[in-house]
Amino acid sequence: MASQAAIIPSLAKGSKQLRACLLCSLIQHPLDFRKHGCPNCEELMQMKNSGDRVTACTTTYYDGVIAVIDPEKSWVAKWQRTSKYVRGIYAIRVRGRIPEDVEHELENRGIRYRPRDQMDQD
Ligand SMILES: [Zn+2]
């Protein structure tokens, strides 16, 4: 995976107004989450046009930032039909849990939620 990720120092520190999706770790400006939802998991998170959902489904508490250039394999693939992350900026670690309704929806799909607050060992 190392060849597919590049550390972006300018984003690694500061930029705390940006928020990371609790489910896939994608980092965006909160207004983008609100306008467009999360491009990876909007189907589950339903953040579009809801500031409350953005607050519940994303967090400013994340560590490390990587650019995912060619995201083929990830656990997101387990629920996405496309089996791909969108290209973008992702947090390495995210603190917090997804809302219960999203967790239930994942369970309904036979997917066990894996909190993102630990180093990703994939
Ligand atoms: Zn997401």
TrEMBL record:
Residues in Spt4/RpoE2 zinc finger domain copies: 18-95
Keywords for the protein's UniProt record, in alphabetical order: Centromere, Elongation factor, Metal-binding, Nucleus, Protein biosynthesis, Transcription, Zinc, Zinc-finger
Pfam family, one: Spt4
Single GO MF annotation: translation elongation factor activity
Example of a GO cellular component annotation carried by this entry: chromosome, centromeric region
Record's keyword annotation contains Metal-binding: yes
One of the GO biological process terms: transcription elongation-coupled chromatin remodeling
InterPro entries: RPABC4/Spt4, Spt4, Spt4/RpoE2_Znf, Spt4_sf
Cell compartments where the protein resides: Chromosome, Centromere; Nucleus
Complexes and interactors: Component of the SPT4-SPT5 complex. Interacts with RNA polymerase II.
Role according to the record: The SPT4-SPT5 complex mediates both activation and inhibition of transcription elongation, and plays a role in pre-mRNA processing. This complex seems to be important for the stability of the RNA polymerase II elongation machinery on the chromatin template but not for the inherent ability of this machinery to translocate down the gene.
Family classification: Belongs to the SPT4 family.
Name of the protein in question: Transcription elongation factor SPT4
Upper classification of the organism: Eukaryota, Fungi, Dikarya, Basidiomycota, Agaricomycotina
